[in-house]
Design brief:
Membrane topology (chain A): Peripheral membrane protein
CATH class of chain B: Mainly Alpha
Shape of chain A: elongated
Strand order of the largest sheet of chain A: 5-4-3-6-7
InterPro entries (chain A): ATP_synth_F1_ATPase_gsu (IPR035968), ATP_synth_F1_gsu (IPR000131), ATP_synth_F1_gsu_CS (IPR023632)
Keywords (chain A): ATP synthesis, CF(1), Hydrogen ion transport, Ion transport, Membrane, Mitochondrion, Mitochondrion inner membrane, Transport
Radius of gyration of chain B: 16 Å
Distance between the termini of chain B: 25 Å
Helix content of chain A: 55-70%
Oligomer: heterodimer
Radius of gyration of chain A: 30 Å
Shape of chain B: flat
Largest interface: A-B, 34 and 28 residues
Pfam families (chain A): ATP-synt
GO molecular function, one term (chain A): proton-transporting ATP synthase activity, rotational mechanism
Number of domains of chain B: 1
Strand content of chain B: 15-25%
Number of strands of chain B: 2
Order of helices and strands of chain B: HHHEE
Chain lengths: 296, 58
Amino acid sequence: MFVRFGNFGSFVPLLVQNGQQQQQRGMATLKSISMRLKSVKNIQKITQSMKMVSAAKYARAERDLKAVRPIGDGATQFYEKAEIQPVQDIPQKLVIAISSDRGLCGAVHTSVARYIRGELAKDDQNIKVVCVGDKSRAILQRLYGKTIIMACNEIGRLPPTFIDASKLADAILKSEYKFSAGQIVYNKFRSVVSYNTSILPVFSLASVTAAPKLSVYDSLDDEVIQSYLEFSLASLLFYAMKEGACSEQSSRMTAMDNASKNAGEMIDKLTLTFNRTRQAVITRELIEIISGASAL
Amino acid sequence: MSAWRAAGLNYINFSNIAAKLLRQALKADLRAEADKRSGTHIKITKWQEGKPIKESTY
């Protein structure tokens, strides 16, 4: 601690209680550097092992995703081929945010939440949100808490299963909320280093039966359509969850790789400063000894 | 109207029950693999006015 005395303009170091941590300006003590070095090394160990874990999880998620892709493609084809439009007289919409409980994976959750925030900024009266995963909920809760009608957690620790998706689809269908159309917002996996935040459309029964080109499908009655819609909601959710999980793991892998690299750089710099400081201390002590000896 | 819908199930419940039975019918070695996909962990909570209203176990 330094205290300035009147107009002398000189710094007089005063040793107050923490005399131990007294240090020269601009020069950290050896001890504080070595402590810092140790903590950075520990962080690097942690990020490295997190990277290994997510690399293993990613490999599995990608394998699963390959198997799931046809399910998602099939379900989206129906909406495209029948050219379904949301019915005009029900303005209510539903947005389903696919994220997970776990963080430390780059901008995976924020980009989903940012898209939904953009939608809600346009119209926050007629849109309700279903949050899958604690992270998207935590981001949206503060500004748009009133629009959330359902939140799910315990997702992301283990790979999502179809039963998870069907529970969610069941809960959405059984909720009292009536909507004409909806979006599933998720991260579409592109490669290990990139993902796109995309949307999948979902529609209500009324919108589907009003579709102009529904006749391209043969022998449809109301019950078949209703059953198919229920099932396709579950499969779309399942597909989106799988894409999301895969993007998340790959993104976490990249994030942890970067973190380990940065920690490595920090360690190099700190080691250099540590060695320099140690050298400086030795030199100073030598000077003190020599000048003391020559003063005799 | 089919019997399962009359009983209050929707197609999701119906197909999951069918899938469960199919898994049970598999041979032991294949069944172990299939059982891994039958688990579920998700917890769904309904929200109202920016607050969770009750823990529900769907």
